[in-house]
Amino acid sequence: MSEKESSCSSCSVQSCPGEAKGQGCGTVENHLSHIRNKVLVMSGKGGVGKSSTAVNLALALAAEDNAVGLLDIDIHGPSVPKMLGLDDAKPQFTEQGVVPVSYEGMKVMSVGFYLEKADDALIWRGPAKTGAIQQLIADVDWGYLDYLIVDCPPGTGDEPLSVAQALGTVDGAVVVTTPQEVALIDVRKSITFCKQLKMPVVGIVENMSGLLCPHCNEVVEIFKRGGGEELAKELQVPFLSRIPIDPAMVHAGDSGAPYLVANPDSVDLQANRPPRQLVVCCAAPSRPRHPDRRPAEDGLKTAPAAHGNPGP
């Protein structure tokens, strides 16, 4: 049988799992089946830097030659379009599904792309939000990805639960906090949420951890320091790293030029380089490999060659 005859009618990839079931690629299961690692970036509450962590983590993974998707599914506060300078971007629609927006080699999708104006409010009750989350995850045609980084809504309620359930298997969660006890109280709930859903916790990132004074080079502990690391020890989960307060990070988010794009050679923010724990914890060797995928290198789950890869 020729390659054309044995390919999926939707994505032109040989041995597509959806085609084998007579489904094609137009279902949520098959859109997600081409994704090797699904990682949630979570927080117990808003305002701790979850979105900036997700954006820079995705960019750092993409810079290491991974095929990366970034999904901003924070219904009431979609920040990714602003952070990436994609305020006016709109996804394309095809028979196979919604094609994500391309940015720096990544595929990006956000609730914000569907708003007519950035200051439009989505005044929805729980069922409407759950339906929107399920539809957004089901409709996006990601193609092959090594990593899908998901900027998850804060908290432990309907929205993050709907995200986790719609994604099916989640390979890990990165939990972002600030160091003070008020934030740590809610992070404990996020860790409990992950454990109850049997979702592996990749680790805790302590954001806004001290400010290096540009005048005296002394560290000012505005929100204290070390709270995230102590909590990680207490809960016996990995501590990934701490990110200091940096005016350059604030400017990057407001200007639409992410920190790692504007400062590609910087070593100041170690947590914005993908921590080795993320790669190790998310690259579970037990996941079955698609027949068309290249052999993994260095133990990582890698994407296949570009043939038949839908999307930009």
Descriptors for this entry?
312 residues, alpha/beta, Rossmann fold, eight-stranded mixed beta sheet, two-stranded antiparallel sheet, 11 helices, 31% helix, disordered N terminus
Explain this structure to me?
The structure is a single chain. This protein is of the alpha/beta class and 312 residues long. The protein has a single domain, classed as P-loop containing nucleotide triphosphate hydrolases (Rossmann fold), CATH 3.40.50. 31% of the residues lie in helices and 18% in strands. It is built from 11 helices and 12 strands. The chain has helices at 17-20, 28-33, 50-63, 80-83, 126-139, 158-167, 181-196, 227-235, 247-255, 259-262, 276-282; strands at 35-43, 68-72, 92-94, 97-99, 101-103, 106-110, 145-151, 172-177, 201-206, 211-212, 219-220, 239-242. The strands form 3 sheets. It has an 8-stranded mixed beta sheet, with helices on both faces. Helix 7 (181-196) links the parallel strand 8 and strand 9. Helix 5 packs parallel to helix 6 and helix 7 packs parallel to helix 8 (227-235). The radius of gyration is 19 Å and the shape is globular. The chain starts with 16 loop residues before the first helix and ends in a 30-residue tail after the last helix. 45% of the residues are buried.
